[in-house]
């Protein structure tokens, strides 16, 4: 029985992936670009959810690692680097290293203190990006003058083509999400949920809770960095505003909307976030008000988020069915 | 007492701020000997446990485990040496299944806490070991229920199973029957005795229920207002006038 359920889940995931694949062939370019952004921000939100939903750590600095990744890609490509692959490895590595250093200082603290320290480091990173003119171009950002073409089977595809960009981002995010999927289902993943559930009991069965947290923080930082690298390629530039703590609230909102602790919740939340933004900004400029109006009842009435609630609902339906 | 004690405490004292809660406690737990620390509410039993099990460093005294000085060593480092404990207020992973509750210590026992790529589900050996542990304490039939949904007594058994999964040498139980109904208490007593005789695990428990202590423990220490008042087997404790006055009152006469 558990196995058929598993097969259903896997089948569902493959179906959604195929739907995503068909995107650029049926959607107008504008929506393909929105979808690209959903994937990138969804990946960022999923990295946040590894900390928040699974490990029980509220990180307000996830945009910091996203930004560090974006600048790593931008710096590599603007200083003469000419490999797409290396530019993204740089983003991943920069996110991981930044998370290792910052994480070392904040995993000792809990709850609100942890959140405040990550927020503080996020602010510091923003200020560095904003004020270190010679390296980052300050508030103007760092434009990419050249984005290497994607080389596949001897043919070159330009990432300036939105459809190519979309399929490229889809591939990279799918790989990252598959990696995350493995992580949460591994013995290490069980340790993370155990931290969330009861870190005292965990320490009293022999776990070094801080080391486990640090490992989670580094993985989340690396994936956020990767998302940042993709974002940089997508916009053909890195700008300091993506390091701003206001930007960090986005993955938080997306995760809460979709469902924290639900694997695909944050990606779903990202889709809702951008979908609503498009829908509402076409009618009024104050879309944040509407976001708030939607968010409050979601938090109050659907603590598992929208995707989580849908899943609960489906589960009770299949249970009742003969 | 020719054997070296598994746990040896010398002049242990602890104060919260300026408030000295326990002082000058010296005692020993012999391997295999079911030992109990009893005392009325607020005597300092939990404080003593916390100081010994690595919850915090005692302000005074030494703790030796298997001949090794472990004073102030944090809990997660004591566990691999074989020192495990339970808590007075049930301490489990509430929103995980019972099975997962036991897999957590087993993963750590096999040093797989950082294995982030292999699938946990494929680790059939861990599942089998978990089933064995659950079977030992008698809650195997609840393996796939959420720990939180179990009746109170079963939750306490989950915590016992969590502790046993690490294959401990010494298990310190802080009031294992607290809050249990007579039936659950009976089951817990029976379990402790059985584990002690069949698997040779050494148990050290605190209690304030005299009946429980007299029925399981062969060595008893009495704590009163932070100091040890008496020690010995149950006859010695029953006969001790100081203990009677301080703690047993009239109930010990029959
Ligand atoms: N963290 C703390 N800070 C200050 N005082 C404390 C703390 N913990 C316990 N105490 C006090 O220390 C004394 C001993 O408490 P302790 O919990 O060790 O007793 P106990 O024997 O376990 O009691 P019980 O049978 O109620 O569990 C009590 O007076 C208690 O109020
Ligand atoms: Mg107590």
Write the layout of secondary structure elements.
The complex is a heterodimer of chains A (322) and B (254).
Chain A: H1 2-26, H2 29-54, H3 62-78, H4 84-106, H5 111-131, H6 133-136, E1 142-143, E2 150-152, E3 155-157, H7 162-184, H8 187-203, H9 209-235, E4 237-238, H10 245-258, H11 265-281, H12 287-301, H13 305-320
Antiparallel strand pairs in A: 1-4, 2-3
Chain B: E1 7-16, E2 19-29, E3 35-38, H1 45-52, E4 60-65, E5 68-69, H2 75-78, E6 83-85, H3 98-109, H4 124-137, H5 152-164, E7 170-174, H6 182-199, E8 202-207, H7 210-216, E9 219-224, E10 227-232, H8 234-239, H9 241-248
Parallel strand pairs in B: 3-8, 3-9, 6-7, 7-8
Antiparallel strand pairs in B: 1-2, 1-4, 4-5, 9-10
Helix pairs in contact in B: 3-4, 3-5, 4-5
The structure holds adenosine-5'-triphosphate and magnesium ion.
Adenosine-5'-triphosphate (ATP) binds next to α1 of chain B.
Quick synopsis:
Chain A has 322 residues and is mainly alpha-helical.
Architecture overview:
The complex is a heterodimer of chains A (322) and B (254). With 322 residues, chain A is mainly alpha-helical. Chain A has one domain (2-320): ABC transporter involved in vitamin B12 uptake, BtuC, CATH 1.10.3470. Helices cover 76% and strands 3% of the residues of chain A. Chain A has 13 helices and four strands. In chain A, the strands form two sheets. A two-stranded antiparallel sheet of chain A has the order 1-4. In chain A, α7 runs antiparallel to α9. The longest helix of chain A has 27 residues, at 209-235. The two termini of chain A are 15 Å apart. Chain B has 254 residues and is an alpha/beta fold. Chain B is globular and about 60 Å long. In chain B, the strands form two sheets. Chain B has a six-stranded mixed sheet, with helices on both faces. Chain B has a four-stranded antiparallel sheet with strand order 2-1-4-5, with helices on one face. Residues 250-254 of chain B have low confidence and may be disordered. Chain B contains nine helices and ten strands. Chain B folds into two domains: 1-82 and 168-254, Rossmann fold; 91-167, no CATH class. The A-B interface holds A 182-183, 185-191, 193-194, 197-198, 200-209, 211-212, 215, 219 and B 53, 74-76, 79-80, 84-85, 87, 91-96, 100, 103-105, 107-109, 112-121, 123, 162-163, 165-166. The site of magnesium ion has 4 residues of chain B, from α1.
């Amino acid at each position: 029985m558990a196995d058929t359920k598993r097969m259903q889940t896997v089948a569902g995931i493959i179906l959604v992936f195929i739907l995503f694949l068909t995107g650029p062939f049926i959607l107008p370019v504008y929506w393909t670009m929105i979808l690209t952004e959903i994937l990138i921000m969804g990946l960022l939100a999923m990295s946040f959810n590894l900390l928040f939903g699974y490990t029980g750590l509220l990180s307000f600095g996830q945009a910091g690692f996203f930004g560090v990744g974006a600048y790593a890609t931008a710096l590599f490509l603007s200083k003469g680097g000419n490999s797409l692959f290396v530019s993204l490895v740089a983003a991943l590595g920069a996110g991981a290293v930044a998370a290792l250093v910052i994480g070392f200082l904040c995993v000792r603290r809990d709850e609100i203190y942890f959140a405040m320290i990550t927020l503080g480091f996020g602010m510091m990173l923003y200020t560095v990006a904003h004020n270190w003119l010679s390296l980052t171009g300050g508030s103007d950002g760092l434009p990419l003058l050249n984005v290497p073409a994607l080389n596949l089977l001897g043919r070159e595809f330009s990432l300036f083509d939105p459809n190519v960009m979309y399929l490229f981002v889809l591939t990279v995010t799918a790989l990252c999400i598959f990696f995350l999927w493995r992580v949460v289902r591994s013995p290490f993943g069980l340790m993370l949920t155990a931290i969330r559930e009861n870190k005292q009991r965990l320490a009293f069965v022999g776990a070094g809770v801080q080391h486990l947290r640090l490992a989670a923080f580094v993985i989340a930082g690396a994936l956020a960095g990767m998302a940042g690298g993709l974002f940089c390629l997508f916009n053909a530039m890195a700008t300091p505003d993506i390091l701003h703590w206001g930007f960090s609230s986005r993955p938080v909102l997306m995760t809460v909307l979709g469902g924290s602790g639900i694997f695909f919740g944050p990606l779903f939340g990202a889709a809702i976030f951008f979908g609503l933004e498009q829908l509402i900004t076409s009618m009024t400029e104050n879309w944040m008000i509407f976001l708030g109006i939607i968010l409050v009842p979601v938090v109050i009435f659907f603590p598992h988020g929208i995707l989580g609630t849908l899943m609960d609902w489906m589960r009770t339906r299949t249970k009742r069915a003969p | 007492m020719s054997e070296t004690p598994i746990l040896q405490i010398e002049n242990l004292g602890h104060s919260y701020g300026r408030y000295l809660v326990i002082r000058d406690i010296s005692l020993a737990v012999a391997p295999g000997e079911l030992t109990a620390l009893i005392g009325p509410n607020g005597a300092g039993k939990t404080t003593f446990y916390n100081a010994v099990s690595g919850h915090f460093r005692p302000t005074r005294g030494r703790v030796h485990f298997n001949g090794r000085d472990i004073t102030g060593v944090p809990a997660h480092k004591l566990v691999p040496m074989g020192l495990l404990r339970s808590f007075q207020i049930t301490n489990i992973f509430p929103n995980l299944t019972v099975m997962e509750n036991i897999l957590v210590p087993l993963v750590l026992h096999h040093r797989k806490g950082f294995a982030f790529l292999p699938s946990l589900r494929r680790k059939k050996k861990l599942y089998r070991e978990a089933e064995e542990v659950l079977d030992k304490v008698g809650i195997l039939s609840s393996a796939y229920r959420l720990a939180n949904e179990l009746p109170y007594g079963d939750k306490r058994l989950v915590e016992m199973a969590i502790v046993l999964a690490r294959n401990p040498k010494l298990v310190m139980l802080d009031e294992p029957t607290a809050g249990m109904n007579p039936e659950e208490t009976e089951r817990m007593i029976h379990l402790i005795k059985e584990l002690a005789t069949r698997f040779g695990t050494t148990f050290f428990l605190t209690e304030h229920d005299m009946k429980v202590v007299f029925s399981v423990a062969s060595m008893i220490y009495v704590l009163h207002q932070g100091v040890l008042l008496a020690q010995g087997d149950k006859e010695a404790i029953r006969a001790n006038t100081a203990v009677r006055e301080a703690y047993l009152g009239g109930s010990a006469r029959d």
